[in-house]
Amino acid sequence: MPDSMLELVGVTAGYGRSMVLFDVDVVVPSGGAAAIMGHNGAGKTTLLRVAVGLVPVRSGRVLLDGEDVTRMVPNRRVARGLGYVPQGQLCFPQMTTLENLQLVTTVRSEIDEVLDTFPALADLLSRPAGLLSGGQRQQLSIARTLLTKPRLLILDEPTEGIQPNVVAEIEEVIADLTRRGDLTVLLVEQHVGFALRATDRYHVLESGRITGTGEGGEGALDEVRAAMAV
Predict the structure, then answer these.
(1) Does the pLDDT value for residue 153 go beyond 50?
(2) DSSP of 134-154
(3) Rounded mean pLDDT, 8-16
(4) Could you tell me the residue ranges of all domains in the chain?
């Protein structure tokens, strides 16, 4: 297995004639967790959409577990082990929590496994997803993606608009998932403290360019803040 699960190599990308990312290099080590941090408008979500295949690259390469997937469509990347949880706690609001999970699998043992990861959902299986709190919907979004059995889980702003106690639960889930060693996590996050605690590597993106990179942990807080001030 390659040392990195995901690599963006010299990626320039954007929308139409408007480029958002400029010669970006990002490495996400296999079996670990990495964070992309930066201010609003820095290009963080665009970077994730490039990784998923939703935004084409103008130049550069995208490697998934050592395989060049630069020209590969999103569903083929998903088939190769990529799971993506976009912003917004997305769910099917008229369907119950259980029905949302059953969109991926009807195998009860697999559903029970993700409920072990998010036990709060176990008591909400019959509730319409639209009536869940923001934190509960975020847990549901992550749980549904985990049912696809990804090797790389990409999370876009997983703590946005979520109450503090659920943020702590999601942080623990990320740590637990990466401790298992068979899942790599990449997250975009504006809450620097959370991002550094939850990951072991960070990249700072500002105005579409990488301005800092290093090992995670709260000891890197000053370095990240300096890179975000560039």
Answers:
(1) yes
(2) HHHHHHHHHHHHHTT--SEEE
(3) 96
(4) 4-89+150-228
